[in-house]
Amino acid sequence: MIQQQIKQLQFDCSAHDWQVIRDPHYYSRYIRFMGIATNEGTQCSTLGYPLELNALNDLGNSNKETAVFSLAATPDIAGTESELMIQFSQKGNTAIWVLDSSWTQSKLNQPCSGCFYYEARFVNQDHPVLLVQRGDEAILNEANAHSLNVSVQGIAAANTQALWAGRALQQYVQHNLLIWGTPLSLLFGGLLMGGYWIMRNYRNSIEGLIEKGIRDNEFLPYYQPIIDSRTKKIVGYEVLLRWQKGQELIAPDLFIHAAESTGLIIKITNQIIKIVLRDLEQLPVSHWVSINLVAEHIEKRHLSTLLRSLNWPQSERMKFELTERIPINDLAVASQEIALLMNKGYQFKIDDFGTGYGGFSYLQHLHIRSIKIDKMFVDTIETDDVKKSVLDSIIASAKAVNIELIAEGAETINQVDYLAQQGVFLIQGYVYARAMPIDAIIKKLHAEESITVN
């Protein structure tokens, strides 16, 4: 994909180059963003603003006639993990793709947390040793640690990868063997019995449990207030999904992937929308709510079908969020669906802005006028993290074309103050309030009203 994109670039940051770097065909969940620097000093990126490419890494000699691919890393900052970059250089022109390696951390935490440490060493002509580390480094100092090593000679670089496992994995295995171990003579029969039990007890599988939860109306909306930092007043809420199963409140991380992969998220969201419509009757008329969607809602017109059946309710107070992390495959249908809903008065936002690969393209093709700045960028305030320049670029780009900005995940007053200095006043985060059920929201509003009266 990268080689195909390179062939399309003219390396002059012209309108043609902008079309290429923002072409949805090159979107990937494994790439955070890309940028190019021409041999004339011009720079452009998928973020809409130039990146200081030389500040990210020493790009080596890019004046060679021969096309060269290499690996590099974002700057090493204490307490943080570097990201890998793919670099291309030829005739003084340079391109970089910053890779999204967040998936590695979740893989290293399976099947147990703190069980693994991963280390990759890349060697090329520009970087004698480029080190990427993930997981629990303390495992290296354990006496009985074991490692698996693999060496590969690639086109751009040679690399040696090592996966270490230590005491935590041994304890995990011993614990599970103690609980689940059975004599080998019974193992095969146990597997057959287990398979039969799973088939007969489908309703206890995650999919079956979700379906039962839908029937029993166990999925509930929680509301996290969005505050105007100038007045300290609530202006709206993001609706966050929770699963109330008996006395247990289940967070979305434990079931949302299964709900999305099975298509059950559509039924869940439809239920949530109907509950939210009832809850809106209890909230001040000036307050709005924002509900998360998946691409399927608009690509298959599920959302308009539901709202039409309800006679287009609360169009001025109900907004919808589309994540940038997962690409929209059919932009043409999505554009038609969103245009229809906007004509009815509904508004849309792009969630997790800057973490994916299509945010600015969505603004252009879907005509969305509101974005939510991801917590990943808000956390860089008052740090030397390279992503802080991305935060400033996002804010400047949005303000230049009069796009509404909401900052997610703010946890400190210093973050709120910095955002206010940049003209961002709509704040969502623990600094003001956590997500809560409708009853708690009503109590909070009554308490604030009582304080105001007194």
Automatic annotation (TrEMBL):
Pfam families found in the cross-reference section: CSS_CxxC, EAL
The protein's UniProt keywords, in alphabetical order, are: Membrane, Transmembrane, Transmembrane helix
Q: Which SMART domains match?
A: EAL
Per UniProt, residues of the EAL domain are: 203-449
Domain of life of the organism encoding this protein: Bacteria
GO molecular function ontology, one term from the record: cyclic-guanylate-specific phosphodiesterase activity
**TM spans (from-to):** 177-199
Indicate what this protein is called per its UniProt record.
Answer: EAL domain-containing protein
| Organism expressing this protein natively | bacterium 19PA01SH03
